Amino acid sequence: MPRVAEPERTVDAVVIGSGHNGMVAACHLAASGLTVEVLEADEVLGGAVSTVERWPGVRVDRGSSAHVIIRHSGIVEELDLAAHGLRYVDCDPWGFAPAPQPGSDGPEGRPLVFSVDLDATCASIEAACGPEDAAAYRRFVEVWGPRSAQVVQAFGDRPSPARLVRHLWPLGAPGKGRARTPGGELATDFLGSGDALLDRWFGSERLKAALAWFGAQSGPPMSEPGTAAMVGWAALLHTTPPGHPVGGSGGLTQALARKLESHGGRVVLGDGAASLLVEDGRVAGVVTASGRRVRTDTVVAACHVGATRTIAGEHAPPALRDAAPPLGNGFGLVVRCQTDALPSYPGVSQADSLQGLQLLCTDRAQLARAHGDWLAGELPREPVPLAMSFSASDDTLAPAGQHVVTIWGQWYPYTLADGRDWDSLAAGEAQRLVDAVDRFAPGFAASVQRLYVQTPLTLEQELRLPRGNVMHVEMSLASMFAFRPTPELSGHKVPGLPGLYLSGASMHPGGGVSGNSGRTAARVVLADRSGLGRLKGRVQQRLSRR
């Protein structure tokens, strides 16, 4: 991947940003025969899907770690990324929730272990929560598995009311061994809150807390309307679990770069897009930060929609210039730990607890308090951690005897109500999250040797995520599907500026590692080029007859 390139070049398409959506778009365009150049301002490939050597011999993810949606989208198979070096380690068991701590208000019991094996999962639920909840969970997976599969299809399509209805309509139709689901019930479930869904299905607060904390990773609290489907996504993980690329999250974007290069495309690092070239009212190219010109009639902006507006500058039409999607007041805080031991949770083996997401929450009231503090611009009174320890199953991440543990804490405000700054708060808040893990895994804090802390401010500075929002734009119901990032821009084009296309987490279906936005943007580009080609052919035929 070159960091210095020729002063001027002409290509069929330029992609701005080497995040996984941009790379997916670039690969699809290149595989269709277009010459493609990806421009990346950072010296590191991959944006928020990247891995660096943070300490000698220790590889640490900069953004995402567990990949969920992309493993259901079909993109990995379509682009044959395995042939380009991508190998996933299955997170199985994919979820672990500890027993309540001794002395807490909750009853003591056994941990919950969620694995691909539904029978084993139900056995764990029965032992921890009772036979009624185990039976209810089995039925929940039977009902929400097909529903979530249809959501996967909707995520992979362009967002519009008609397309959404087409994807979800089959759920209301009777099928083999399945009664018809009334439309009102479907609407109630999909438009309702995750909390309401959990309360209808289950009795145990421990089980509800674990599933709520899993669903809340998209951002909104499970008390908000439209969050039920985020809980329902868990049903899909009994077919294909989350995965972690060998060598770190950046293994995905590295494989995409190799795929792109195999079709003649390339990524230029350290020289991002600075401005658009516009001629006769349409895109004509990009000027990079170094002053280099890349001539093209197609630009796919796979960066934050706000960054796209800045790059368009005076050429931004009203739909882009006036776009103001909700960014929120920060999102979360990440603590990357180098340790000399893995977390050890009482009453459960490391094989059951460390393969996937360690959902360290036993009561939804903890989540509600943390979100309420965030709304008030305050730090959480009680940090709620989610831990991941992928060095337990991938020995390429750290030297022998060393491990990498990532701790995610959600709902940390970018701007604090009392005006305190993150530079002075980072160390203390990181330690509070480490201590929160230690309460469930005694001895963990003593194992920590080094910390790298990503506050909301650090996430903004390091990964170009405005206000530290890892989803770019809030993931509330009012900012999803055909409303994302705004209704005018939801079609992956910029009205008033032909040749400029949009991708990335700012677009449908939003944040998380899915690649859907990149694939959809590429499909829109190719459809437009095909239509333009047919139009040019008809014009040439008419001229030849004269």
Structure in words:
The structure is a single chain. The chain is of the alpha/beta class and 546 residues long. Helix content is 36%, strand content 16%. The strands form 5 sheets. A 7-stranded mixed β-sheet has the order 8-7-16-17-18-15-19. Strands 10-3-2-14-20 form a 5-stranded parallel β-sheet, with helices on one face. Helix 1 runs parallel beside helix 11, helix 1 (20-31) runs parallel beside helix 19 and helix 4 packs across helix 5. The termini are far apart.
In short:
With 546 residues, the protein is an alpha/beta fold. 36% of the residues lie in helices and 16% in strands. The radius of gyration is 24 Å and the shape is globular.
By CATH, the superfamily of the largest domain comes out as FAD/NAD(P)-binding domain
Strand order of the largest sheet: 8-7-16-17-18-15-19
Helical run tally: 19
Rg over C-alpha atoms, rounded to the nearest angstrom: 24 Å
Task: Look at the structure and give the CATH class of the largest domain.
Answer: Alpha Beta
Structural class: alpha/beta
Total domain units: 3
**Annotation, overall tally of beta strands:** 20
- Distance linking N and C termini: 49 Å
Query: Percent of residues in helical segments?
Result: 25-40%
Could you report the average pLDDT, rounded to the nearest whole number? 93
Basic shape: globular
Which percent range describes the beta-strand content? 15-25%
The largest sheet is: 7 strands, mixed
